Structure of Alanine--tRNA ligase:
Amino acid sequence: RHLSHLELRKSFYNFFKSKDHEILKSTSVIPNENDVSLLFTNAGMNQFKPQILSSTEPKRVANIQKCIRAGGKHNDLDDVGKDLHHQTFFEMMGNWSFNDAFSKEEACRFAWEYLVDTLGIDDDRLYVSYFAGIECLGLLEDHECREIWKKIGVPPERILPFVAENFWEMGSVGPCGPCTEIHYDQIGGRNAASLVNVDDSVVEIWNIVFMSNVRDSSGKIHQLGKNHIDTGMGFERLLSVVQNKNSNFETDVFMPLMNKISSLTGRGLKYNGSLKSREDAVFRLVADHVRAVTVAISDGVTPDGTGRGFIVRKMMRRSFLQGNSKLGIDRFALSDLVPTVISTMKEVYPEMETSSDNIIRLFKEEEAQFWKTVDKAKKMFDSLSTESRSSVFSGRKAFNLFETYGLPLSVTIELARNIGKEVDEKEFEKCQLEAQKLSRNASQFKLPISAGEFPTHSDKEKYSYGFKAGKYEFPQVETRI
Ligand code: ATP
Ligand code: MG
Ligand code: MG
Ligand code: MG
């Protein structure tokens, strides 16, 4: 049966309510202000980091969390557009067991039952993976997990061991642990085991993490001494499965936006969902970035020159430029997409409607600034390009245009091509690396604790990563839905 995105949300909540979970609201994409280890909320478990790190009563909760993966350990910024299943902004469905509220086996059974019995997904198309162990870190192979899947009835040839993919970490420090993941073969009728974690036609949908470890700032992994379970499933990916689409971008959370982009191209360009077409990739990028920016601003981020504001500015500029140069979208037309984003999300996030005018205003301001800069930089480019007759445009000059005017390399390359020159991209990269090194030394997210300070297992209660140590109180009523 075809479910709309609203129906899918409801079915998820109802299922976990029936398993005695308390349903909580999504928190902001701006992480807990005490958590200096994160740029944006990158997983459903972020808001529960305190519960995971300190002692808490046994409890089951579930939610659907707004996430942005555009920096830090989980950074999909440079992949968005290139495939059919990554966005920078996505929603993560999740359920949790704190302090043994349910067992490993129950976690796997809940997931299987929801997918196969409740949603009716063909179990012949599902593959599961488990942690194969990392000996040098003292992390053992998760036999127990493999046996659980066998008991549930998954054929052994579809239970696969992985190393790196099956040890989940929130960031470079913090909670982590072995995991088991469920993957869906979009094609079916074949043995797709060798394509899991390799090919875009087999999609990772659900990650169930056995949160039993924590990594300190020196890189050491310790036991948490408690059994928590943290699961995360890509909402748009699951939606693509239940709506029988091979792409997140063809589900009902994206199609209104794709159609609106199409109407702005002025050339009647349509989104065709192709993996190979460059224009389709730009459709995906623009749709994703405008969504991410809209959510981020609505949650309180302002585009500017540092931190998360800079990521937002970067996403805006990218969509202005790519939308204009690759799809022929007029300057200043892109903010027309904001109401479309909001109209598909407002039922779930009503607060977005009240920030609509502000978001549109910021889009226009940023765009005015951007084109002014590009036009200025173009003039500068013209004078630089006549300085030498060589067919190579210096990478250092291209980098200076980028640093001084914010002119993206891709624009410089295009301008250079127009006059029969090639940009020395290697030199550009070298300059960029030098600059990155300098800025890395100057500013860095401050880690909450320094190497060597990590407490031993026995005095874990004193340890808190910036949170109040000790017993953690669960979120207050307003986070319940
Ligand atoms: P992938 O390997 O596909 O990049 P991941 O292993 O990085 O995914 P997890 O950290 O395990 O992802 O997150 C849990 C779930 O969230 C994934 O199983 C997937 O369904 C979803 N997810 C992760 N990243 C994205 C993204 N960029 N866009 C949409 N959904 C995502
Ligand atoms: Mg990833
Ligand atoms: Mg993965
Ligand atoms: Mg994963």
Q: What stands out?
A: The first helix runs from residue 5 to 18. Residues 69, 74, 76, 86-87, 90, 92, 168, 204-207, 232-234, 236-237 surround adenosine-5'-triphosphate (ligand 1) (CB under 6 Å). The first strand starts at residue 22 and ends at 24. Confidence is low (pLDDT under 50) at residues 442-479.
